[in-house]
Amino acid sequence: MNIEQLNNNHGIVDHIKFIEGAGGFPYIRVDNAKGSAIISIYAGQVLSFHPANEPHNLMFVSERAYYQPGKSIKGGTPVCWPWFGPDPEGKGRPAHGFVRNRFWEVMRTEASGNEEGKVTLGLRDSAETKAIWPHSFELLLEITVSDSLNMELITRSLNGDTFPVTQALHTYFKVGDIAQVVILGLEGTEYVDKTDKGHVKSQAGAVVIDKEVDRIYRNVQGEIVIEDAELDRRIRIKSKGSKTAVVWNPWAKISAEMGDLKDDDYKCFVCVETANADQDVVQVGPDSESRLVANYRIERNVS
User: Fold this and answer.
1) In 10 A of CB 262, how many CB atoms?
2) What is residue 12's DSSP assignment?
């Protein structure tokens, strides 16, 4: 993708600029009075979000992340679609679908005064995608940058097609010290424990991370809040179109085994994913759409 052409077609002076990023990938920089963000057109992935006057990034991105076509970027907001987790049909297709390792198209950009910027990225079916997943679709990702970060993943069925979708915004949140993190809003919620043979359990109290955690929470109600005492902030997560939340941290052994994580990176992030997964399958009917929405806001003064 030509950076100059992208700026000519979609740049907005002082608000939205296209730049060359890591690995030569085209990035979009969004700036306004309330916040700033960096978005990779490859993978349709937000890699950075800073509300104005906030000293720390919302996002964690590994220093060892791969920036290579065909590889996923470890950090930010990977998009899992049209399936979450292993290939549901056991055909050997990649985990978490096929949109987090390809270039998206810039559909449009907008700026509302100096307080909000919006970028819409999109993908449509092609001969290549139909060889992987035989459906006619349009997938849009609307990213709004202001004092919060808002993401809407929109799935549209085309040509009278009908298909099931599981999906997630697999967001990596930066934390100061995982040992001082508490996750609120999931108390009493049933979850599938993927670290314990998929046994179904009930969340007793707030979620703390003191070992490998890989859980799919069912029938999630209301907001989820990450309390990060070390960085003296809360991350408030509001979602729509989702009954599922996934909480993941690889802990020490898996972090050390991953080539795109440093050994101690597990101390610096937690994934809390807005999802449709497990029993929460979305059926997209003929010429209709579904929306998965997540809004992330930082609040100061945890103590």
Assistant:
1) 14
2) B
At residue 264, does pLDDT exceed 80? yes
Q: Which amino acid is at 198?
A: G
SS (H, E, C) 174-210: ECCCHHHEEEECCCCCEEEECCCCCEEEECCCCEECC
String of b and e for 264-289 (b: at least 16 CB within 10 Å)? Answer: ebbbbbbbbbbbbbbebebebeeeee
**Structural domains of the chain, with CATH:** 3-300 (2.70.98.10)
Q: Does residue 170 have an active-site annotation?
A: yes
- Is 273 designated active site? yes
Catalytic one of 135, 170, 212, 299 = 170
Distance of CA 148 to the CA centre of its chain: 14
46: part of which helix (H) or strand (E)? strand 45-51
Quote the distance between the C-alpha of residue 223 and its chain's center: 17
Other residues' Cβ atoms within 10 Å of the Cβ of residue 205: 10
Prediction pTM value = 0.97
Residue-wise pLDDT tens digits, 128-169: 999 999 999 999 999 999 999 999 999 999 999 999 999 999
